[in-house]
Amino acid sequence: MSTPSASAFTATPFVGKTFGVTVKGLTKQFGRATVLHDINLEVRPGEIFCLMGPSGSGKSVLLKHIAGLERATSGEVRIGEHDAGDPDTRDKVHLALVFQAGALFNSLSVYDNLALYPREHRLCSEAGIRERVMNALSILSLEKAVKKYPSELSGGMKKRVAIARALVMEPQLLLYDEPTSELDPVMSATISEIIATLREQTAVTSIVVTHDRSLALSIADRIGIIMDGRIRALGVPDDFRQPADPAIANFLSPVIDLKNPRFKQLENSHE
Amino acid sequence: MTFLNAIIGHIGGTVLLLGRSLKHVGTLPGQSRRVIEQCYIIGFTSLPIVTILTFFIGSVLALQSGYSMENFGAKQFIGTLVGLSMVRELGPVMVAILIAGRVGSAIAAELASMKVFQEVDALETMNIPAERILVLPRLAAILVMMPPLALIGIICGWYGGALVSEYTHSISVDNAAYFAALKAYMKNRDVIDGLLKAEVFGFVIVLVCCYIGLSTRGGPREIGASVTKAVVTSLILILVLDYFVTKALL
Ligand SMILES: Nc1ncnc2c1ncn2[C@@H]1O[C@H](COP(=O)(O)OP(=O)(O)O)[C@@H](O)[C@H]1O
Ligand SMILES: [Mg+2]
């Protein structure tokens, strides 16, 4: 019935301000392992910032610091002028995080997952909530899943529900952790369009952790590459179409080489 | 030393959790649906096992005491003994042990899995305190359900004892004599003390199991570890608290 389309989205323009994010000298250790080394980053208000990097490079951990779910070992993270680690910041900044694995509430139906936030914060009447929820679901073509429970959904559907749940929150800062992994190319393109349209309409600052090169190159205002817990490069998309740094070129457009496969190189390097 | 530190840390953490939950007590009327749902899960679904277990505890109690009281020719007091033991001690303790095994384990498992699969993190980013919607309704539900559960348990124990006393050849104390003896030495105070005890046990079990569930770190394997820890801790606490509460009430 509904083809997914970003233009179907009619967000209530958020009244209030949008926030930039400043990361200064952020270092994070888990026990002895240092996962983030002296990260410095500035995401401007209203910008779409794509953070790319190999698996295990610390992208999710960085995002959790911004969301206030992890405490820095040293350094600081600020959202506007507020300390991201301070619990009071949540009263001042409405942020939404789309978790990598969805983090849907398993005991609630899809509808109730989306309705929880407006209900708990008493944002509007049950009819108003219904409208908001159904609107968000239709944007992600999830109308059929409305009564389902998370355990009945595929990985890709969970991800879309997680995005819909973030949309319902009408956030001022939107953090996406790999929003298009597990999605087919068309749905990935739709998500990219939604991220861009949402920013267009609400000026929401968006930080997108992704491996999706075409998403980053087409919608990002700026891109940051993180490798081994360090910022390796920062720039606009055009800087990353033909990157000079061989490590980045290899990461963004890896060439499959059967004559000299990577896993063999790894083996040799251990000897 | 580190062990002692850890225990003090956990006690502190549990008290803090209680404090953070009570801060939201004003939201309870608005959460009546959650409280009712928890009452159903905690209370109603525990009823069959509570009735069966306490019935047999009462029966065995009558059997054992009938056997030993025969020697003193004190058989006619069997109702007194079963009645008081059930109401002051065995009823509340046995129901609490059942609640620890049935409800405490389920709470720890559910909250631990919510923690491990980042549902608790999601609540945090949504600025919805987990204490408000996960802990508080469960605490309220156990406070509502524990007295009726314990009372039903106690009464089933009495009837278990009555049945055995009447139909066991060597005892043969009929129902009327049994309940007369039971009532003769039973004060309202005994019943209130018993129910109060059950209330304390239930509240502590649910609080501790919520704390242990929400403190889970790591992956799915840690969910199992948390459940074990929750049940073992609850059982120890029931027996330790039993001593102190009994002493305080006597
Ligand atoms: N809670 C944690 N405890 C210990 N190590 C962690 C924790 N979370 C992440 N790590 C480690 O931090 C590194 C970066 O993880 P992550 O940010 O999830 O990577 P990715 O860039 O793929 O999102 C990994 O080596 C991971 O093992
Ligand atoms: Mg990640």
Describe the structure.
The complex is a heterodimer of chains A (271) and B (250). With 271 residues, chain A is α/β, with parallel strands linked by helices. Chain A has one domain: 3-Layer(aba) Sandwich (Rossmann fold). In chain A, 34% of the residues lie in helices and 22% in strands. In chain A, the strands form two sheets. Chain A has a six-stranded mixed beta sheet, with helices on both faces. In chain A, strand 1 and strand 2 form a beta hairpin. In chain A, helix 4 crosses helix 5. The longest helix of chain A is centred in the last third of the chain and has 18 residues. Chain A is globular, with a radius of gyration of 19 Å. The relative contact order of chain B is 0.17. The model of chain B has no long low-confidence stretch (mean pLDDT 94). With 250 residues, chain B is mostly helical. Chain B has one domain. At the A-B interface, strand 6 and helix 3 of A face helix 4 and helix 5 of B. Bound molecules: adenosine-5'-diphosphate and magnesium ion (MG). The site of magnesium ion has 4 residues of chain A, from helix 1.
